[in-house]
């Protein structure tokens, strides 16, 4: 079993023939991901990277049986790309696009309620099940197979955590980059829940950042449902109130939005909190060794 994607996932790329779509589709193919085609309106019938190009997601799904889509389209068209994928029956939609207007994401969130499609992102690195499938922009060579799951708002810290886990003699089951925008498809709690229920994941790394309540919501759920050790880190410990730091959602709006407040909440709910990202791997190894 795996979370969200595996070697059987059939992936299409929306924005397939663009610069970003081409580069990352090539990387995904090289990793072994089953990319079965792509979508670029007006280029249907062509071949790109030895894969068929379709005018619509519906055409792609009908011809290939695709169940996963990754979106590389400009911000102004990204919401429509998500709508199209969901309407075509895609089960998992991974939206990499950064800078989607919040108003558009409000519509996307509302549209997906009650639908079978799950959205990861936007403004995220994607999802990878180590040595099975990479649906995203992460450097695949870092991710070696193992039994540690990662949930992260930060792409860079996802890679850092994975590298540390591997160097500690462990490995990754699935890493989920949920994205750092104010409104995203899958929350920290939902991603943690997926990994907590995965029999092939023994421990979870949860990386959050200032702004919003997602980490607190996840921590409270972990306290009530915890069956596996969780190591947490919160980025933005030196961020001043009211200033956006990196991600659009990384802004302190209240007392509970600070890194210190979030770290306190995590610790109170049974998460092992590290003060520095440099300590993630060794702390996880220590926690796992104590549990044996």
Automatic annotation (TrEMBL):
<comment type="function">
    <text>Succinyl-CoA synthetase functions in the citric acid cycle (TCA), coupling the hydrolysis of succinyl-CoA to the synthesis of either ATP or GTP and thus represents the only step of substrate-level phosphorylation in the TCA. The alpha subunit of the enzyme binds the substrates coenzyme A and phosphate, while succinate binding and nucleotide specificity is provided by the beta subunit.</text>
</comment>
<keyword id="KW-0436">Ligase</keyword>
<dbReference type="InterPro" id="IPR016102">
    <property type="entry name" value="Succinyl-CoA_synth-like"/>
</dbReference>
<dbReference type="InterPro" id="IPR033847">
    <property type="entry name" value="Citrt_syn/SCS-alpha_CS"/>
</dbReference>
<feature type="binding site">
    <location>
        <position position="43"/>
    </location>
    <ligand>
        <name>CoA</name>
    </ligand>
</feature>
<dbReference type="InterPro" id="IPR036291">
    <property type="entry name" value="NAD(P)-bd_dom_sf"/>
</dbReference>
<comment type="pathway">
    <text>Carbohydrate metabolism; tricarboxylic acid cycle; succinate from succinyl-CoA (ligase route): step 1/1.</text>
</comment>
<feature type="domain" description="CoA-binding">
    <location>
        <begin position="4"/>
        <end position="100"/>
    </location>
</feature>
<feature type="active site" description="Tele-phosphohistidine intermediate">
    <location>
        <position position="247"/>
    </location>
</feature>
<comment type="subunit">
    <text>Heterotetramer of two alpha and two beta subunits.</text>
</comment>
<dbReference type="InterPro" id="IPR005811">
    <property type="entry name" value="SUCC_ACL_C"/>
</dbReference>
<dbReference type="Pfam" id="PF00549">
    <property type="entry name" value="Ligase_CoA"/>
</dbReference>
<dbReference type="InterPro" id="IPR005810">
    <property type="entry name" value="CoA_lig_alpha"/>
</dbReference>
<dbReference type="InterPro" id="IPR003781">
    <property type="entry name" value="CoA-bd"/>
</dbReference>
<feature type="binding site">
    <location>
        <begin position="17"/>
        <end position="20"/>
    </location>
    <ligand>
        <name>CoA</name>
    </ligand>
</feature>
<dbReference type="GO" id="GO:0000166">
    <property type="term" value="F:nucleotide binding"/>
</dbReference>
<dbReference type="GO" id="GO:0009361">
    <property type="term" value="C:succinate-CoA ligase complex (ADP-forming)"/>
</dbReference>
<protein>
    <recommendedName>
        <fullName>Succinate--CoA ligase [ADP-forming] subunit alpha</fullName>
        <ecNumber>6.2.1.5</ecNumber>
    </recommendedName>
</protein>
<keyword id="KW-0547">Nucleotide-binding</keyword>
<keyword id="KW-0816">Tricarboxylic acid cycle</keyword>
<dbReference type="GO" id="GO:0004776">
    <property type="term" value="F:succinate-CoA ligase (GDP-forming) activity"/>
</dbReference>
<dbReference type="Pfam" id="PF02629">
    <property type="entry name" value="CoA_binding"/>
</dbReference>
<comment type="similarity">
    <text>Belongs to the succinate/malate CoA ligase alpha subunit family.</text>
</comment>
<feature type="binding site">
    <location>
        <begin position="96"/>
        <end position="98"/>
    </location>
    <ligand>
        <name>CoA</name>
    </ligand>
</feature>
<dbReference type="GO" id="GO:0004775">
    <property type="term" value="F:succinate-CoA ligase (ADP-forming) activity"/>
</dbReference>
<feature type="binding site">
    <location>
        <position position="159"/>
    </location>
    <ligand>
        <name>substrate</name>
    </ligand>
</feature>
<dbReference type="InterPro" id="IPR017440">
    <property type="entry name" value="Cit_synth/succinyl-CoA_lig_AS"/>
</dbReference>
<dbReference type="GO" id="GO:0006099">
    <property type="term" value="P:tricarboxylic acid cycle"/>
</dbReference>
């Amino acid at each position: 079993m795996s979370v969200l994607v595996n070697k059987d996932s059939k992936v299409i790329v929306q924005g397939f023939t663009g610069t970003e779509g081409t580069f990352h589709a090539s990387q995904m193919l090289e990793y072994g991901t089953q990319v079965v085609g792509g979508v670029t309106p007006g280029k249907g019938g062509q071949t790109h990277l030895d894969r068929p190009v379709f005018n619509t997601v519906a055409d792609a799904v009908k011809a290939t049986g695709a169940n996963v889509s990754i979106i590389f389209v400009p911000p102004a068209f990204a919401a429509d790309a998500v709508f199209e994928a969901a309407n075509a029956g895609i089960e998992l939609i991974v939206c990499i696009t950064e800078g989607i207007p919040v108003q558009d994401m409000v519509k996307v969130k509302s549209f997906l309620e009650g639908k079978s499609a799950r959205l990861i992102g936007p403004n995220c690195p994607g999802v990878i099940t180590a040595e099975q499938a990479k649906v995203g922009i992460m450097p695949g060579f870092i991710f070696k197979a193992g039994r540690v799951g990662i949930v992260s708002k930060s792409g860079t810290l996802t890679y850092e955590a994975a590298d540390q886990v591997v160097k500690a003699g462990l490995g990754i089951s699935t890493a989920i980059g949920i994205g750092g925008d104010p409104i995203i498809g899958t929350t920290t709690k939902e991603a943690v829940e997926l990994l907590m229920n995965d029999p092939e994941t023994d421990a979870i790394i949860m990386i959050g950042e200032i702004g919003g309540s997602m980490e607190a919501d996840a921590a409270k759920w972990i306290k009530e449902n915890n069956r596996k050790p969780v190591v947490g880190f919160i980025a933005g410990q030196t961020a001043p109130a009211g200033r956006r730091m990196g991600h659009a959602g990384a802004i302190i709006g209240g007392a509970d939005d600070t890194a210190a407040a979030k770290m306190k909440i995590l610790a109170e709910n049974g998460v092992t909190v590290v003060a520095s990202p440099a300590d993630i791997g060794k702390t996880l190894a220590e926690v796992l060794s104590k549990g044996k």
